[in-house]
């Protein structure tokens, strides 16, 4: 491809709409253009990156035993009603009606439709295991699309679904996909970590891992341990109780605390440490109010709480709902004397010996409260967020925190969909059994954006060689110099013959403009054909990732560049 023919409209200024670096640079470098909120055109440079990511994904899926198909984007409501998700998936589901007023949705995911396909076409144990995948557009009606390709309404995703005879088969399919995902993101040249995760709206109870590209701009927060392999999303990370030796118990007392509602205010007013207070909250879980207790210096983990309560909808109660439980309202809630409502306590709460809690009346708190003596709870559980420096749940070493971008997730669905939708097979004895399922997704367009979030500098994108739109750009300093143009053309054609993705910048532009565009777009290798060609027979090679520059003779440049590319790709395979 010649730069003069390439449709890559670059921008010198950063568009006001762009919030994160990948959004800014993909717009500026001519990779994407906005169509509407959360919906983008992928221009030729982006399409080349996407195709390379898809090629890596296909190779790994096929090597693991996957078979590619393509499923409909438009899905009938009946299937979602059969699985039970039509009414609970939420407002992110694009819903529509056809001319006959039948309900459909645009697929945000394909568990229902793939389960229906398999149940109607697979009947025998001999046909299992089965792994089917597609690479296709998905649709989610985000309330506030943002961050460019990170959180859009239309995006490209690879989703594979496994169907096995039993849990042992699912475990093997899950292992294959876990290894395949590790290979995919390594081959893409990304720094990532697989972390334990919550299954979310996809569901299933058998376990899940997210694959996180490490980047400061990531929306997700993860904890990890350098001493072992443990890593988890903070929503999933297990917290070990950090209990200190308690002081001897004293009789409970009520004290006046006028205007003191927050943990910080109460602690200062009573001159106690927040670790000796109990934060009391009321949540509405579906149609039931529940009370939740955590230590005053901790944060509630709503994902853990939602999983513990096994509810579809969880929200913090309103002031009016808090007043239904306690006349003190939200600012003076406490567990002492509460009846008729379940109480769930974090594991650290019950170890306190002189706790401060709300008195369930305005302007008052109780001090020297002893759990199990002064109040009891329905259940104790790990309900809090983990903090950096806490012991690793596997080895005890201090955990660290980092931010990450989710680019893939693997789920053990078990029989969640096969049971509700009747997806069965006949075993060796002719008895009907439920298929055991897994699902595995890669955000293809998000992987492209994540690569930019992790690989950029002040001048633009720094693409990993394996997924760069072009691996090499050849830049003649002057298109009016016949010798330079002849050498640039020859190098360009030689690299093409060697199978290198190469671009020739044949534009009648100043050298500075060409160099700035090359850095902005992020070509891994730049070959500059300039004045040293005539005087010394040399051309300059510059590596985008580290800025290294060196001169090579015209005769050796092609083989050297091919070798550099091969070495770079080999490092990640």
From TrEMBL:
<keyword id="KW-0963">Cytoplasm</keyword>
<dbReference type="GO" id="GO:0006433">
    <property type="term" value="P:prolyl-tRNA aminoacylation"/>
</dbReference>
<dbReference type="InterPro" id="IPR023717">
    <property type="entry name" value="Pro-tRNA-Synthase_IIa_type1"/>
</dbReference>
<dbReference type="InterPro" id="IPR050062">
    <property type="entry name" value="Pro-tRNA_synthetase"/>
</dbReference>
<keyword id="KW-0436">Ligase</keyword>
<dbReference type="GO" id="GO:0005524">
    <property type="term" value="F:ATP binding"/>
</dbReference>
<dbReference type="InterPro" id="IPR045864">
    <property type="entry name" value="aa-tRNA-synth_II/BPL/LPL"/>
</dbReference>
<dbReference type="GO" id="GO:0004827">
    <property type="term" value="F:proline-tRNA ligase activity"/>
</dbReference>
<dbReference type="InterPro" id="IPR006195">
    <property type="entry name" value="aa-tRNA-synth_II"/>
</dbReference>
<comment type="similarity">
    <text>Belongs to the class-II aminoacyl-tRNA synthetase family. ProS type 1 subfamily.</text>
</comment>
<dbReference type="Pfam" id="PF00587">
    <property type="entry name" value="tRNA-synt_2b"/>
</dbReference>
<dbReference type="Pfam" id="PF03129">
    <property type="entry name" value="HGTP_anticodon"/>
</dbReference>
<keyword id="KW-0030">Aminoacyl-tRNA synthetase</keyword>
<keyword id="KW-0067">ATP-binding</keyword>
<dbReference type="InterPro" id="IPR036754">
    <property type="entry name" value="YbaK/aa-tRNA-synt-asso_dom_sf"/>
</dbReference>
<keyword id="KW-0547">Nucleotide-binding</keyword>
<dbReference type="InterPro" id="IPR002314">
    <property type="entry name" value="aa-tRNA-synt_IIb"/>
</dbReference>
<keyword id="KW-0648">Protein biosynthesis</keyword>
<dbReference type="Pfam" id="PF04073">
    <property type="entry name" value="tRNA_edit"/>
</dbReference>
<dbReference type="InterPro" id="IPR002316">
    <property type="entry name" value="Pro-tRNA-ligase_IIa"/>
</dbReference>
<dbReference type="InterPro" id="IPR033730">
    <property type="entry name" value="ProRS_core_prok"/>
</dbReference>
<dbReference type="InterPro" id="IPR004500">
    <property type="entry name" value="Pro-tRNA-synth_IIa_bac-type"/>
</dbReference>
<dbReference type="GO" id="GO:0140096">
    <property type="term" value="F:catalytic activity, acting on a protein"/>
</dbReference>
<feature type="domain" description="Aminoacyl-transfer RNA synthetases class-II family profile">
    <location>
        <begin position="48"/>
        <end position="464"/>
    </location>
</feature>
<protein>
    <recommendedName>
        <fullName>Proline--tRNA ligase</fullName>
        <ecNumber>6.1.1.15</ecNumber>
    </recommendedName>
</protein>
<comment type="subunit">
    <text>Homodimer.</text>
</comment>
<dbReference type="GO" id="GO:0002161">
    <property type="term" value="F:aminoacyl-tRNA deacylase activity"/>
</dbReference>
<dbReference type="InterPro" id="IPR036621">
    <property type="entry name" value="Anticodon-bd_dom_sf"/>
</dbReference>
<dbReference type="InterPro" id="IPR007214">
    <property type="entry name" value="YbaK/aa-tRNA-synth-assoc-dom"/>
</dbReference>
<dbReference type="GO" id="GO:0005829">
    <property type="term" value="C:cytosol"/>
</dbReference>
<dbReference type="GO" id="GO:0016740">
    <property type="term" value="F:transferase activity"/>
</dbReference>
<dbReference type="InterPro" id="IPR044140">
    <property type="entry name" value="ProRS_anticodon_short"/>
</dbReference>
<comment type="function">
    <text>Catalyzes the attachment of proline to tRNA(Pro) in a two-step reaction: proline is first activated by ATP to form Pro-AMP and then transferred to the acceptor end of tRNA(Pro). As ProRS can inadvertently accommodate and process non-cognate amino acids such as alanine and cysteine, to avoid such errors it has two additional distinct editing activities against alanine. One activity is designated as 'pretransfer' editing and involves the tRNA(Pro)-independent hydrolysis of activated Ala-AMP.</text>
</comment>
<dbReference type="InterPro" id="IPR004154">
    <property type="entry name" value="Anticodon-bd"/>
</dbReference>
């Amino acid at each position: 491809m010649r730069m003069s023919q390439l449709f890559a409209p670059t921008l010198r200024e950063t568009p006001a709409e762009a919030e994160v670096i990948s959004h800014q640079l993909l717009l500026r470098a001519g990779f994407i253009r906005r169509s509407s909120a959360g919906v983008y055109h992928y221009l030729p440079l982006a399409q080349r990156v996407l195709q390379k990511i898809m090629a890596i994904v296909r190779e790994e899926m096929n090597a693991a035993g996957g078979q590619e198909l393509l499923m409909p984007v438009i899905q009938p409501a009946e299937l979602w009603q059969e699985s039970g998700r039509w009414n609970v998936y939420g407002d992110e589901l694009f819903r529509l009606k056809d001319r006959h007023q039948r309900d459909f949705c645009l697929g945000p995911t394909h568990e229902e439709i793939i389960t229906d396909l398999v149940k109607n076409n697979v009947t025998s144990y001999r046909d299992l295991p089965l792994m089917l995948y597609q690479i296709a557009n998905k649709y989610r009606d985000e309330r506030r699309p943002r961050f460019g390709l990170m959180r859009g309404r239309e995006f490209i995703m690879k989703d594979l679904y496994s169907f096995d005879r039993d849990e042992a088969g699912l475990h093997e399919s899950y292992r294959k996909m876990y290894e395949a995902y590790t290979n995919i993101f390594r081959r893409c040249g990304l720094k990532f970590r697989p972390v334990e995760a919550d299954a979310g709206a996809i569901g299933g109870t058998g376990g899940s891992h997210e694959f996180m590209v490490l980047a400061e701009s990531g929306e997700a927060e993860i904890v990890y341990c350098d001493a072992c392999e443990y890593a988890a999303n903070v929503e999933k990370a297990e917290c070990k109780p950090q209990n200190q030796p308690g002081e001897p118990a004293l009789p409970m007392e009520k004290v006046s605390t006028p205007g003191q509602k927050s943990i910080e205010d109460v602690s200062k007013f009573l001159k106690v440490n927040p670790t000796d207070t109990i934060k009391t909250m009321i949540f509405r879980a579906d149609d039931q109010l529940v009370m939740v207790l955590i230590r005053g210096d901790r944060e509630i983990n709503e994902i853990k709480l939602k999983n513990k309560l096994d509810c579809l909808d969880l929200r913090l109660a309103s002031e009016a709902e808090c007043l239904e439980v306690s006349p003190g309202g939200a600012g003076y809630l406490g567990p002492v004397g509460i009846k008729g409502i379940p109480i769930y306590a974090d594991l650290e709460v019950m170890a306190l010996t002189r706790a401060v809690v709300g008195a369930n009346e305005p302007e008052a708190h109780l001090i020297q409260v002893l759990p199990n003596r002064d109040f009891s709870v329905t259940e104790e559980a790990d309900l809090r967020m983990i903090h950096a420096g806490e012991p690793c749940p596997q080895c005890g070493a201090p955990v660290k925190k980092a931010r990450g971008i989710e680019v893939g997730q693997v789920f053990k669905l078990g029989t969640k969909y096969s049971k509700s939708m009747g997806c069965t097979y006949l075993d060796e004895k002719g008895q009907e059994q439920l298929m055991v399922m897994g699902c595995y997704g890669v955000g293809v367009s998000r992987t492209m954006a994540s690569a930019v979030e992790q690989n950029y500098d002040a001048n633009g994108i720094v693409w990993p060689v394996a997924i760069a739109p072009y691996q090499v750009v050849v830049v003649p300093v002057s298109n009016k110099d016949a010798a330079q143009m002849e050498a640039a053309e020859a190098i360009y054609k030689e690299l093409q013959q060697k199978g290198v993705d190469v671009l020739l910048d044949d534009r009648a532009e100043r050298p500075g403009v060409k160099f700035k565009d090359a850095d902005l777009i992020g070509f891994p290798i730049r070959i500059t054909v300039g004045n040293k060609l005539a005087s010394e027979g040399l051309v300059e090679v510059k590596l985008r990732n580290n800025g290294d520059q060196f001169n090579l003779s015209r005769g050796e440049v092609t083989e050297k560049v091919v070798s550099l590319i091969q070495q770079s790709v080999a490092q990640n395979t």
